[in-house]
Amino acid sequence: MRTPVTIIGAGLGGLTLARVLHVHGIPVTVYEAESSPTARTQGGMLDIHDYNGQLALKATGLMDEFHAIVIEGRQAMRLVEQDGTVLHEMADDSTGGRPEVQRGELRRILLDSLPADTVRWGHKVSGARALGEGRHEVTFADGGNVVTRLLVGADGAWSRVRPLLSDATPEYVGTSFVETYLFDADTRHTGTAKTVGGGSMIAPSPGKEIFAHRESGDTLHAYVALSRPRDWFAAIDFTDASATAARIAREFDGWAPELTALITDADTAPVLRPHYALPAEHRWARVPGVPLLGDAAHLAAPNGEGANLAMLDGAELGRALAASPEDIEAALAEHEQAMFARSTEAVTFEGTEVVQGIDSEDNTPRAMLKMITEQAQ
After folding, report:
1. How many percent of the chain have pLDDT more than 90?
2. Which 3 state secondary structure label does DSSP give 246?
3. For 291-341, how does the pLDDT look when each residue is reduced to its tens digit (9 = 90+)?
4. What secondary structure letter does DSSP report for 346?
5. Chain centroid to CA 153: how far?
6. Torsions phi, psi for 121 (to 5 deg)
7. Has this prediction a pTM greater than 0.85?
8. What's the N-to-C CA distance of the chain in angstroms?
């Protein structure tokens, strides 16, 4: 295949695609809005699943590099009651199919595997349009542009490529995370560190929950989930960190201080992460030369699958293009049909199918434990 591939977005999906194309000798250029690989932090821990994310990494030929960044012990998981009681714990015995890595480290090994000029940093896309005869033009905020016959939208929730295919736009799903970090937790936040344990901890309840993960060293990364409308969060001044923490903590009055400390004792200002999603059955008619992958194609509320699916999308698209060098449209059609099917499959949690959302009356530690036990049997 001689047609160069233009990828918009240097996230995990776009970089996985770029790596697979590079392995197969297909020329590729990635355009990324961020000014450099270190322009911002890259998020927290990711569990890379053996049924999707790891399959994608095998296609990249980077499994040794992946195993080198796995943080041992982080697959451990605790279910915790509101009073801090550990109801159930699943140990990390190194046999699970979801090893944990830092997102930034995973992105780094993908970037390091590509020729230095593959990613063009500081190229924020302002729009894309069809030129006819299968060509598309991408314009950048700095006034530059590029014309391509194969344009891949790997540019996330607010994709600038998606409008070439679909009128769908993400909508707020009614829940948000408030994100915090606690550093040096084993010495400075001892009680909370003991409650979280060595891996992840979830304290669920109807309409709200606290999830925390031990990252590299003794850093605790917390996601405080609340089912509230956007206006509720808009009434909070997130520029005032202490007032914000106090306001969010009031939603958990009566909970154990070891849990609420993940909000009130945070070493970073609380950050709001509202959840948006595309329609579950998001589909489009085939447009020559323009595929989507990852959140640009099937954005969903956080469920543990987003990064894994984006990487598998990228790997499968790369392999399809390599396998059909003389019929790119057949490769794109194959990619889309497989991706559409994947994006609607049931989400699982530690090997059990998730059957309730945060607003469910069954979003409790005991109901979750019952679900896990029944599935195991």
Report:
1. 83
2. helix
3. 999 999 999 999 889 999 999 999 999 999 999 988 999 999 999 999 998
4. P
5. 16
6. -80, 160
7. yes
8. 50
